[in-house]
Every structure is written in structure tokens, then in C-alpha cells.
Amino acid sequence: MRNILDDFLVKKGDTGYYCKYGDFYIDAMLPVERNIISHAHGDHATAGHRRMYATLPTFAFMKNKYPKMTDASQHVVSYGDPLQFGDVRVTLFPAGHMLGSAQILMEFEDVRYLYTGDYKLQNDITCEPIEVRKADVLITESTFANPAVKHPDFREEILKLKDRQSNIMLGCYVLGKAQRLTALINTYLPEREVLVHHKMYPVHRLYDQLGRCRLKYTLYNRKAMKDAPGNKIYLVPPLTFNSYFRAKNVLRAFASGWERLQRQNDITLYISDHVDWDDLLRFINDVQPQQVWTIHGDGKALQHHFAGELIVRDILQAG
To answer: Where is the Zn-dependent metallo-hydrolase RNA specificity domain (predicted)?
Structure first.
């Protein structure tokens, strides 16, 4: 049994996850000296840190959101290339969540600690597929760590939009989800024309420059949406989607793993970029950890499932 340090990575108030053994943060929300960023979503990536470490796509998406972010603070990290912070060796590997997303493997005194960030096991042609690395401690998101949550096949879900005799307003998040949906529509519904909201357009352009496939889409304009034939799918951010709750002559759908976001829509569309219960168990089995520390959700169901078999607990809060 290796000497696992319970306080190797801790949650430090509202600032973020801190490793005192290497003196760095992961996904810090407040400005810090050194911050490793798993991916570019706003609940993981903020600007203002003195030194930031992330993949090239992550910085590109952050630059789009934070145009005043200084290049001097950015240290681009390639997958598989190790960093050294004191005696802690840090390596980034693909997480499969979105383009540029990374798991963060930390090695210290022959113990391997793996921080997942957000991740998924489903195939997604718009981003790097997840890579599995063995670890002694798995520090995993638990967004959908509930046995009742089992996401359907994404191919079956996107085909729900087929043969609908109407244009469709499809709500989704601007970064990652919108580009994945565009690729799915391009692949499985080629007869449908994708229109994207003006906030999504520059992110789509970045995916075209940095991504793994070429997306087919057009910037939204009112005339195109009204013109026949009714074969348009208009991708809009959540706030826009909610503001058009009485929109006429369109079918409404919202792509998410959350049941609450499917209510009162014309079409349910359970497409998630997080692991569900079965994939979480599969990933734990593949990583083969001695302990599992949970973040970003509720780990109680996981603790109950592995009771007497595997140590599962929430990450410690810093004193």
C-alpha cells in the first residue's frame, strides 16, 4: 500500500484546488500565482493569474472570452509533456470533454493522483478522445454520480430531430456543446442546415482552426430562419433560448443531461458531455485507484456503492 497523502490536493475556500506539495492550484476561480486549467469552461477557467498552464485550445477559447488576457501569463502545455513543480511531476492527458480539455496527472513520492476535470467516454469527433491512465487516487467530477442517471446513445438522441416538419430552435452551451451538436447534425442529419447564434460563431471558427473536423454552419440571420424550406436548426445559448419561450413556428429542444432542462420543450434531447453512472463506474474500474475523491457534485451514491470495497470520499476542505 502506497503512502497516499490525504491533503495532497484540497479545496481551498472559493479559490480552487490547491497542492501545497507543488505550490500550485488547479482550476482556480480567484487570482493565484500558479494555476493549471483543465479546460476553458467558465466554472473551471478564469483569467488574472500570474502564471497559467493549459493546452493551446484552452487558451484560445479563454482569449476569446477574456481579450485582455496577457500572453506573458500563458504557458502552453502539450498532452504528455511533463511539468515539474518542486517535487511534483504534472502531466496533462485528454479528457474527452471538449477540445483541449485535460486530465491532470500528478506524481509525488511514487503516488499517482489523477484529477479528471470534466470528462466523458462517449465518442466525439470534435475533440481528443479520453486517455485512461492508472492512478492510486482518482479525483473525479461527480456531476451525474447517481445510479438513476443513464444517458441514452447520442446517435439515437440526435436522430429525434430527423423528419420534423419544422425549423428547430436548439438550446445549448456556447463552448463545446454547440460545436459537438453541429458535428452531429452534419453527420446524422445532413439535410438540415445549421444556423449559429452570433456568440457561438467565433467559437465555431476556433474549432475550425484548431479542431479535428470541419464544421458546416451559417451565422444566424432572421430571413434565413423564416425562408422555406423548414430545414433549419438554430443553435442558441441558454439565455436566448429562455427568452424565446413563446417562439412560434419552431420546435424547441435543449441538449443536456439534466432532466430539468428538458421540461416544457417540444423534444427531449439528452446529450451530455459528462460521464453518467455507468461510465463513471467503468472509468473507475479502468483507472484502478485505491481511493476515489469526489468533486463537482454529490459523491454519496458512489460511497454507498463501493462501501467496504474502495475508499470513496469528498475532497478535503483546507483548514
So the answer is: 271-305
HSE toward the beta carbon, residue 148, CA cutoff 13 A: 3
Q: Which domains does the chain have, with CATH numbers?
A: 10-147+274-314 (3.60.15.10), 154-269 (3.40.50.12650)
Q: Are 282 and 288 in contact (CB under 8 A)?
A: no
User: What DSSP character marks residue 128?
Assistant: P
Which of helix, strand or coil describes residue 163? Answer: coil
Q: Tell me, what's the pLDDT at 133? A: 97
Sheet with 193-196, strands from edge to edge, namely 218-219, 193-196, 232-236, 167-171, 250-255, 267-269
**Contact yes or no for 221/234 (Cβ under 8 A):** no
Find out whether 268 and 259 touch, Cβ atoms under 8 Å: no
d(CA 198, CA 266): 24
Query: Does the global pTM surpass 0.90?
Result: yes
DSSP assignment of 230-270: --EEEEE-HHHHHHTTT-SSEEEEEE-S-GGGTTT-SEEE-
C-alpha cell belonging to residue 10: 484540497
Interval 33-85: pLDDT, tens: 999 999 999 999 999 999 999 999 999 999 999 999 988 899 999 999 999 99
Closest alpha carbon to 134 in 156, 158, 101, 110: 110
CA dist., res. 157 & res. 164, Å (int) = 14
User: CB of 155 within 8 A of CB of 142?
Assistant: no
